[in-house]
TrEMBL record:
The lineage of its organism: Bacteria, Bacillati, Actinomycetota, Coriobacteriia, Eggerthellales. GO terms for molecular function: 4 iron, 4 sulfur cluster binding; metal ion binding. PROSITE patterns: 4FE4S_FER_1, 4FE4S_FER_2. It comes from the Bacteria. Pfam families: Fer4_11, Fer4_4. This is 4Fe-4S ferredoxin. The keyword Metal-binding applies. PANTHER family: PROTEIN NRFC, PROTEIN NRFC HOMOLOG. Residues 3-32, 48-79, 80-109 form the 4Fe-4S ferredoxin-type domain. The keyword Nucleus does not apply. Keywords: 4Fe-4S, Iron, Iron-sulfur, Metal-binding. It comes from Enteroscipio rubneri.
């Protein structure tokens, strides 16, 4: 069992529903995005086109972030999900430096909220426990939802079904990999659990 995700770039329309669902579910702070959708323009007129690239933590099979963590705060579960134990994290940020995908963020303790002039709203107050000043945070692949038998929020809300979540060892996921799905930055030899199907 190794959980992962295959993102079909031919289906992704760059709507950012995944970004919003991730922020809402995980109550990430202003400016913090565990799930991002990069948009750029490629080519030149008259053959220019929009390139859409959704990204998240790759939950690597060989995670450099785990290897460099001096306290064991960054760890990998048996199902392949990579997490951070806030109680063990000392904020050294070695994991951030080691991650080739820039998937981690550091909590500097700014609790201004989304609407500073109004103060924190009830939701921000209720989810404040999720954030610990001086620690690192990242996409958790909605491990809590998976443990309840659900799928990650980003995959749940995708209107085009571009995000396909499941056990990478299953026949269905392996069939998609064999269709030509590729991993980001294979030169890093981390064996990411996130694959992309090209257009």
């Amino acid at each position: 069992m190794r959980y992962g995700m295959i993102i079909d770039l031919g289906r992704c329309i760059g709507c950012n529903a995944c970004t919003i669902a991730c922020k809402q579910k995980n109550a990430t702070l202003p400016g913090v995005f565990w799930c991002k959708v990069g948009v750029s323009e490629e080519g030149s007129y008259p053959h220019a086109y929009k390139k859409i690239m959704p990204t998240l933590c790759n939950h690597c099979e060989n995670p450099t972030c785990v290897h460099v963590c001096p306290t064991g705060a960054s760890y990998k579960r048996d199902d392949g999900i990579v997490l951070v134990d806030k109680d063990k994290c000392i904020g050294c940020r070695y994991c951030m430096a080691a991650c080739p995908y820039e998937a981690r963020t550091f909590d500097f303790g700014d609790r201004t909220g989304y609407f500073p002039e109004r103060g924190n709203n009830a939701y921000e107050d209720a989810t404040a426990y999720k954030h610990v000043k001086g620690t690192v945070s990242k996409c958790i692949l909605c491990a809590d939802k998976i443990d309840e038998g659900d799928i990650p929020a980003c995959a749940r809300v995708c209107p085009t079904g571009a995000r396909i979540f499941g056990d990478l060892d299953s026949e269905e996921m392996q069939a998609l990999v064999k269709e030509g799905a590729y991993q980001p930055r294979p030169d890093e030899r981390t064996n990411p659990s996130v694959y992309y199907l090209p257009k």
